[in-house]
Specification:
By secondary structure, this protein is α+β, with helices and mostly antiparallel strands. Helix content is about 50%, strand content about 10%. The strands form 3 sheets. It has a 6-stranded mixed β-sheet with strand order 1-12-3-7-2-4. Strands 5, 6, 8, 9, 10 and 11 form a 6-stranded mixed β-sheet that branches. The longest helix is centred in the middle third of the chain and has 31 residues. The chain is globular, with a radius of gyration of 34 Å.
């Protein structure tokens, strides 16, 4: 059954519906992406209209006023502010008419024309360095260069317009990208008030500068002058332009030269105002025609498919569309779904977990599946049926504070233990499952009333259980290769495990019983990964110098599982007190240094067939790039690129140079043999044996940690 009608309206009527001082009736649903066009794109769109090129069609959605409260939406912006310093400047909503319309496709174009034609208060407020990028201007410099901002309004450069008309032979041949300029038009509030150096380069000019007097006229003033009243001709516009140019202090000579071409431009603007914009308009809900589920399914799918530029939709995009449509902001302190997820993303980023909206929705969706869907993750088929997804929105709204607080607190606990997403673990599944596991305890607490002391005791027990399992889960789930093949199935199985635990936990009344179930679950997960993780460490090795960064995580852990070693490892190996410590995997015995050792083979061809015991270059490549020949050291040393021994670099470190610490004591503490600190005079075979012993010892200690017989000494 057809859900839409075709229509067309004059452009100026659509813009008035979106910007009326009496309140807007043309709105933007929160399902829409934010306004992202740049000032240059706005200028380009206006230029296209002035050339007579098509504006394109729109997709609108008619909504009864009774339904508006359940559809998160916003008016268009008066100021596109991207500084983050100001409250949003928006049009007010109408008090309400019988019907509103939502813009499902065409927001960027309509918003752009409003910023160009809307009036004196409409424009872009951008940081100056962003203006310089957009306009290809000289980048501002100075103490506060990245904090200054400017509020720009689209203006016609009357002087340039006059010159271009004369040069090109008429208004129709003018490239308006050359005469439309973003200009500061407010004496107060047009620029940030932070102190600027005297030679500061403003990326956009101001009409109040002496050299710009009488140069700029706001495009919105010309748009207002372009009356659609019948019977007006070019001469009428010339009569109205004269006082406008005088009001803008345009010199008489320039005003006389541009009066006729400007009147011609006004006629063009009248034609643009009256041009019919075609649209498809989705009908409002009618219970005589559609069921509510069928109607909602259609709206969400039409919207999401249209806004993906022909690419396949992700499950998370459709999920978030449903979440935003059904969100009850009254239950989340009047915060929309978009705002709630934005705040959650920002809070997680502060704890070192930076996620895009797809990843964030996927994580939250998995948590919901654990608590409310018997561990069944949403499938593509589910997402096309409103009755499958709408319960998720209701559940999330009801439990948002618990879900979001648990995610942030859990990420903070992980961060405190030194694990960084993207550095120490790359699979989001690792964190999602850890947070979902912790959520079982937090949700149980939210549903059970405990006294102050009992509640505090439970929270501490939960955090202690989390800390006891967190590290090994993160490390083993990666080293076991768990997130390689069949990742989706493995993840789904883990979610099922947690859901089964939740079915038991929610019936319990004793806090200790809850903690016991959680502990047993994590112990089972970790135990199942130990064999594969141990094999990973046994096989761990690289053959080339540029691949030793693969040792970063094992070394990061190894430095922390012995108290004396960790004390020595914390020493910042700086040659001066300036700069911050930044460590990376480096060779203990530099690659180039191996080439200088006695009996080091130059290549395999030098080893005769009769000498089977002799070292080959392949043997040496394996040894020199082994785990036992690596440590986490200060990046600035660049030991791997030098032929000098480690001692040479250590002797330059302040603590060793002053005698506050001894190199040999430090090296012994971090498990580096003296023959590795300075192997000069040793044979390659002697050094190789030391490296192999150290490699074996390091792997043994790492496996002891995985088995639970060693603990971290840094926490």
């Amino acid at each position: 059954m057809k859900i839409y009608d075709e229509g067309a309206e004059p452009l100026h009527e659509l813009l008035r519906a979106a910007s009326s001082d009496q309140g807007a009736t043309l709105l933007v649903p929160d399902l829409q992406r934010p306004y992202v066009w740049s000032p240059s794109q706005v200028t380009l769109l206006v230029d296209s209209l002035l050339r007579g090129w098509p504006f394109g069609t729109l997709l609108l959605w008619s909504v009864h006023k009774e339904d508006l409260a359940s559809i998160p939406s916003r008016p268009f912006w008066r100021v596109a502010d991207r500084t983050g310093e100001f409250d949003d400047e928006q049009v007010s909503k109408s008090n309400p008419p019988a019907q509103f319309r939502m813009v499902l496709d065409g927001q960027q174009r309509l918003q752009s024309l409003l910023l160009a034609f809307g009036g004196d208060s409409w424009g872009f407020r951008l940081l100056d360095h962003e203006w310089s990028t957009v306009l290809d201007a000289e980048r501002p410099r100075g103490r506060n260069a990245r904090r200054h901002w400017s509020l720009g309004h689209l203006c016609l450069d009357v002087h340039s317009f006059s010159e271009r008309v004369q040069a090109s032979g008429g208004v129709a041949k003018v490239d308006f990208r050359d005469v439309l300029v973003w200009v500061v038009q407010r004496p107060d509030g047009g620029r940030s008030t932070l102190k600027r150096p005297t030679n500061y380069k403003h990326p956009i000019t101001s009409s109040f500068d002496t050299e710009n007097k009488g140069r700029f006229v706001r495009l919105s003033r010309l748009w207002d002058l372009a009356s659609t009243q019948p019977g007006l001709f070019e001469k009428h516009f010339r009569e109205r332009l004269a006082p406008l140019l005088e009001q803008h202090d345009v010199p008489k000579v320039v005003a006389n030269a541009v009066l006729e071409p400007l009147a011609e431009l006004i006629v063009t603007l009248v034609a643009i105002k009256q041009s019919k914009v075609s649209y498809l308009q989705l009908a409002p809900f009618n219970d005589q025609v559609f069921s509510q589920d069928l109607y909602n399914d259609a709206i969400v799918n039409i919207f999401t498919r249209l806004n993906t530029a022909g690419r396949a939709l992700t499950r998370q995009e459709i999920t978030f569309a449903w979440i935003k449509t059904g969100w009850d902001a009254a239950k989340t302190d009047n915060r929309t779904a978009g705002k709630c997820f934005e705040e959650l993303g920002e809070a997680l980023a502060e704890e070192g977990v930076v996620l895009d909206i797809d990843a964030l929705v996927g994580t939250v969706s998995a948590m919901w599946s654990v608590l409310h869907r018997d561990g069944a993750l949403l499938t593509a088929n589910d997402l096309l049926r409103g009755e499958k997804v709408r319960p998720m929105v209701q559940d999330l709204v009801q439990n948002w504070e618990t879900v979001s607080a648990n995610a942030v607190d859990g990420a903070q606990l992980v961060d405190v233990r030194g694990f960084r997403f993207g550095t120490h673990y790359r699979s989001l599944n690792v964190l999602t499952l850890l947070l979902s596991w912790r959520l079982l305890g937090r949700q149980w607490l939210a549903e059970h009333s405990l006294g102050v002391m009992a509640k505090d005791s439970f929270e501490k027990s939960l955090d202690a259980a989390f800390a006891a399992s967190c590290d090994r889960w993160i490390l083993l789930s990666q080293w076991s290769g768990r997130w390689g093949k069949s990742t989706d199935k493995a993840f789904a199985d883990y979610i099922k495990d947690l859901s089964a635990d939740w079915a038991r936990i929610r019936k319990l009344t004793a806090p200790d019983d809850v903690i016991e179930i959680l502990k047993r679950r994590m112990e089972a997960w970790i135990s199942a990964l130990q064999a594969e993780s141990s094999k990973y460490l046994d096989d761990l090795g690289v053959l080339t110098r540029d691949a030793v960064h693969q040792y970063y995580l094992p070394l990061w852990l190894w430095h922390r599982i012995d108290a004396e070693r960790w004390k020595a490892s914390k020493l910042p190996l700086r040659e001066s007190k300036r700069g911050s410590l930044s460590v990376d995997v480096d060779h203990v015995v530099a690659v180039k240094l191996w080439e200088t050792l006695q009996d080091t083979p130059q290549n395999a061809a030098e080893v005769g067939e009769e000498d089977e015991s002799a070292l080959t270059t392949d043997d040496m490549s394996t040894t020199m790039n082994a785990l036992g020949n690596c440590c986490l050291l200060e990046k600035s040393f660049n030991i791997a690129k030098s032929a000098a021994p480690l001692r040479v670099f250590l002797d330059r470190v302040h603590e060793f140079k002053t005698g506050a610490l001894k190199v040999d004591d430090w090296a012994r503490a971090i498990g580096v043999d003296a023959d590795l600190v300075d192997p000069r005079g040793k044979t390659a075979e002697e050094v190789r044996l030391v490296v192999e012993r150290r490699t074996a010892q390091m792997k043994t200690e790492l496996k002891e940690y995985l088995s639970g017989t060693r603990q971290r000494a840094d926490i």
